[in-house]
Write a structure and sequence with these properties.
The complex is a heterotetramer, with 2 copies of chain A (about 325 residues) and 2 copies of chain C (about 325 residues). Chain A has one domain (about 5-305): Rossmann fold. Helices cover about 45% and strands about 10% of the residues of chain A. Chain A contains 11 helices and 7 strands. In chain A, the strands form 2 sheets. Chain A has a 5-stranded parallel beta sheet, sandwiched between helices. In chain A, strand 6, helix 8 and strand 7 form a beta-alpha-beta unit. Chain A is globular, with a radius of gyration of 19 Å. Chain C has 2 domains: about 1-195, Rossmann fold; about 210-335, 3-Layer(aba) Sandwich (Rossmann fold). Chain C is built from 12 helices and 14 strands. Chain C has helices at about 5-20, 55-60, 70-85, 105-110, 115, 145-150, 165-175, 225-235, 255-265, 280-290, 315-320, 325-335; strands at about 1-5, 25-30, 65, 90-95, 125-130, 155-160, 180-185, 190-195, 210, 215-220, 240-245, 250, 270, 300-305. A 7-stranded mixed beta sheet of chain C has the order 3-2-4-5-7-6-12, sandwiched between helices. In chain C, strands 9-11-10-13-14 form a 5-stranded mixed beta sheet, with helices on both faces. In chain C, strands 1-8 form a two-stranded antiparallel sheet. In chain C, strand 10, helix 8 (about 225-235) and strand 11 form a beta-alpha-beta unit. The radius of gyration of chain C is 20 Å and the shape is globular. Chain C starts with a strand and ends with a helix. The chains are: A alpha/beta (about 325), C alpha/beta (about 325). At the B-D interface, strand 5 and helix 9 of B face helix 11 of D. Bound molecules: thiamine diphosphate (2 copies) and magnesium ion (MG) (2 copies).
Amino acid sequence: MDLTKEQLLVTYRKMRMIRSFEEKLSELVTAGKLGGFLHLYAGQEAVAAGVCGRLDERDYVSTTHRGHGHCIAKGVRAKGMMAELFGRSTGVCKGKGGSMHIADLEAGMLGANGIVGAGIPLATGAALTCKVKNTGGVAVAFFGDGASNQGQFHEALNMAANWKLPAVYVVENNGWGEFTPTEFVVPVKDIAVRADSYAMRSDIADGNDFFDVYEKAGLAVEAARAGEGPTLLECKTYRYYGHYVGDPLAYRSKAEAEKWKTERDPLDAFESRVVGDAMLEAEELRRIDGEVTAELDAAVEAAENDPLPDPASLYEDVYAQE
Amino acid sequence: MDLTKEQLLVTYRKMRMIRSFEEKLSELVTAGKLGGFLHLYAGQEAVAAGVCGRLDERDYVSTTHRGHGHCIAKGVRAKGMMAELFGRSTGVCKGKGGSMHIADLEAGMLGANGIVGAGIPLATGAALTCKVKNTGGVAVAFFGDGASNQGQFHEALNMAANWKLPAVYVVENNGWGEFTPTEFVVPVKDIAVRADSYAMRSDIADGNDFFDVYEKAGLAVEAARAGEGPTLLECKTYRYYGHYVGDPLAYRSKAEAEKWKTERDPLDAFESRVVGDAMLEAEELRRIDGEVTAELDAAVEAAENDPLPDPASLYEDVYAQE
Amino acid sequence: MAREITVAAAINEALRIALEMDPDVVLMGEDVAGGGTREAEGTDEAGGIMGTTRGLVTQFGNERVLDTPISEMGMLGTAVGAALTGLRPIVELMFIDFLGVCLDPLLNQASKLRYMFGGKARVPLTVRTVTGAGMQSAAQHSQSLYWITAGIPGLKTVIPSNAYDAKGLLLASIRSDDPVVFCEPKGVLFDSCDVPEGDYIVPLGKAAVSREGSDITLVGMGATVKMALAAAEALAADGTSAEVIDLRSLAPLDEQTVLTSLEKTGRLVVVDEATPRCGIASDIARLCVTKGFDFLDAPVGCVTAPHTPVPFSAILEQAYMPSPDKIVAAVRELS
Amino acid sequence: MAREITVAAAINEALRIALEMDPDVVLMGEDVAGGGTREAEGTDEAGGIMGTTRGLVTQFGNERVLDTPISEMGMLGTAVGAALTGLRPIVELMFIDFLGVCLDPLLNQASKLRYMFGGKARVPLTVRTVTGAGMQSAAQHSQSLYWITAGIPGLKTVIPSNAYDAKGLLLASIRSDDPVVFCEPKGVLFDSCDVPEGDYIVPLGKAAVSREGSDITLVGMGATVKMALAAAEALAADGTSAEVIDLRSLAPLDEQTVLTSLEKTGRLVVVDEATPRCGIASDIARLCVTKGFDFLDAPVGCVTAPHTPVPFSAILEQAYMPSPDKIVAAVRELS
Ligand SMILES: Cc1ncc(C[n+]2csc(CCOP(=O)(O)OP(=O)(O)O)c2C)c(N)n1
Ligand SMILES: Cc1ncc(C[n+]2csc(CCOP(=O)(O)OP(=O)(O)O)c2C)c(N)n1
Ligand SMILES: [Mg+2]
Ligand SMILES: [Mg+2]
């Protein structure tokens, strides 16, 4: 594994930040302090961290309604994100986007997206930019198993394959699309096989194992940068919370979720590997846990006290030129 | 081959009717006698005839902008079609549809369609009707290689596979989508492989060989009727005319077309097989040729003299109930 | 027997009645069953994101209550094909914002097949869809895009403002031989009123006079009807008598009811949750200035959303939406 | 130097200039190259179904002039992503009727990203698309659906009536940092007028007074401008002096130019190829009855297509479309 200690620490911090960020949101909503329509990424941390671990400033990612994790992994700051979710003018989108549209172009983050599948062509376009401008960059689309049934998936992957774009399509198969089990709506076992429709490279990773994702994402990103075209990378994983915060989760068994949480948790797996292999020490991780908690508490406190947007700003930012 | 002499004669008549119908239209447009946007099916006759040879009154077909052949093969009468193309009130759609929307629900023909890919879900829906009402019917969608790049293709095939609908998806790969060669926009050699994305049956037929199409369509229709779900059947073929009548055909080589016409003509192939194997005699075919010519001449003459629609009919047929 | 039930419950009841009475009726959509027939522990059906389809798969089975993939275009196109061949499908499009991924089956198929086929087809399709803002769902889950479907010849579009109309309009939509888009406005989905238990319809194409008045006509639809009624209340305190019209059908539009009221009052304000351009408000304004010109004593007032996407922040979303105060202010401006 | 060229040629010229002057400009669409760079005999490029892109792939290569699959949603979404990250894409949507299969990238992405991202994005995307009836292309290839794009906040929509404006508006659209839908009306595509050779723009958002007059204002756009001019000619013979306004931009709308004319004439007829509901004609009527009420001496006249799909038969299609005669009749009705 080609990871330095520093990289491992950064990775753990990201995963922990994602987990704690989502847990904090769940608390805040339950306490009636936060509104909106929130889809939490907890349980899938290894995918965002593993793929984004292969990216740099030249690169782009697009995501879905369930996008906080990808933002954090791509380097968007928790403070601006939290302010956004609180609808403050200091939010990363000035309070206009919220959870489903959280974005930070400076960090190469092309936005969460409320339309299932819509992020896939956006990343494809970013890959076209990288190719035409010859920047060496790669664009990654993160999306769910459900999104692989959208026409946009098919159309964009076909175009990317035709044009050999530097793109990576990461499908996070978490077994559910809202309340519907994936096997009801996807008749193939592995979504990765859909790459064959475009003569595209494909791979399957254990989405709860950071190291597996990191390795396979590495191959995909390398191929993209080398001009060998796109890859469809399926990561098998699971979401811990309901589809959205407030979902009573009546449709899935507690036992199913418990099993994933206790036996397959991505943070636990990471920790036992790095500590077991003596790459990091448990105390280092606990220190990070503390720092993350402190950072998040500070972010919430700041967000709660930040100014609300001026109502007049409602009319701004529609057009670049009037 | 399980075809009676009668069936072979019917088949030949259909293929000849399609060929002559299209040649007649080309003439009429060139002579300035006919307007509109016409896409001719000549060269692909064996596909429509081979597949529709397996269908009966319970069954449905949907088609594309290039739909005359499927109409004829599914039993729509040339007279009503010709009147339609002449925009007459006696047309099968009372002059309101024209070539791109020619339809005859009584014959189970769900319409040509001006939107590439849109016929695919229509047939899927007809298959759902057959299943829910348990009619024993099958629905067939005919579409082009180009249409297999539309999101509707992906979405509809996935649904049909999930629900094991009695449907057959016939992709007529004629090497071109308008002026663009298929290999520019479809990165796989065989479109049939796209079935694997849906764990769907697939097959490939020589679209210029009636017997091959008939055989493979038979298997697909049989599977559909037996409740085994849909099939994607790719038929490799070629269109003789330009994309539309008036297309200068600058983009493809004369030699390419000549080769198909002289070496691979579906009517020639049919004739040499049935005459060679002494299933039919050449004179029988010549008699049909003559009958078809006479029928078409009569259809044109009738259409030219039929009444134009009453301008007031412009406002009719928008709603079933006002 | 009538009881107070919510719009969401009224919709559920209408669906059940339609499925019971006609074997050709099928219901499809994402999570309308919600894995409800899965043979595993803990898989109670969800009944859709708003719970409007709860209990239906249990009663009617998953040949008639179908969970679809997240494939709106395929699902709607399939429903059109089914409608064309003898079923009477009801499709749930979770939010009207998703029209973006499935317009073609409505724009170029459902609405046009009958015409293109010379009257020899019918497309008895109902598309149910949630509309409107107010839940901080931001720009892609809060639109009031019914102006797009209302603008397409061959489609009908209806929007109830209360549970009674919701049930009756939905039953009328399902039984219509034409394709109907049935809007379920967020702003009223959980409002209750008296609703009879049995089968009844509210006819398509007929507006209602929700409150009589003589000084000004307020025209609303869906969630703006209650805003208009609240505004009328406030205006009454001032001595202004407002008549409130609930359009109910956006297409076809009941021009006569609007014109009759305008003739009486001479002044009109239209209130629409949608953005201002090319909307129902413009159509009502056009109706006034073409067929109602002689009745008009003042400019027509339009209270709509601004020409912007829907913002996330609650404070901005409130500023975005019409309100009784804005209606009162618009009325005062005409005086 | 100006020469007479067609609208189609003017578009081709604008594209060439834009591609020459800015390396970030790319052009994509079905057959825009048309297999033009295929290494085989007889593969002259087609340059699109209307020939508007002819010669461009030869000059700029197929990294900048890209043939796409028949995947409008993917193509437009890809273009939005490219625009967001530094390219300036021009997309050809062969006919505006195909909005049905690709609305989302316009409705929920291009138009909203800047707003949703708090102003921190720009989407310099131009979508070129053919609009209108008149070629017997029937219900799915003849619509004038620009009311849909004009109604969406965050998009701009323009429609030229002549070759000069076509070139200048297209160059302005491509250089705009906002997404613009550029309509190419069939009815004028092969009409010619004097067009300068070099680079120039016609600003977005500004209408033109195509003919001055004092008795009535005729408002047209795209192909209806020449109908309005012909009607004005006929009316002049009668002693009625008609002013003709060419909207050019449908969004944003140049309200001031319309109101100024209405103030002068007191009467107005709007002429639109599109269907009547929720269209530009309604918006113009609303403008008159809100901001122009005091100027109005008569009802507003609307000459539009009927509320039906476009029929195939030539005789019906003629009856469907606006015409100088229908405009004259509408004017007479107001007198
Ligand atoms: C076009 C569209 N259809 C439906 C929805 C509603 N919706 C939001 S998330 C979701 C499920 C997505 O499932 P998946 O892609 O597997 O992602 P996951 O939620 O599992 O991360 C649905 C149906 C939507 N937002 N957009
Ligand atoms: C959605 C849509 N996009 C584009 C077109 C324009 N168009 C009509 S036919 C055609 C090519 C179709 O190619 P294919 O599916 O291979 O069928 P073929 O013409 O070869 O029979 C195109 C691009 C259309 N009618 N509809
Ligand atoms: Mg999922
Ligand atoms: Mg083809």
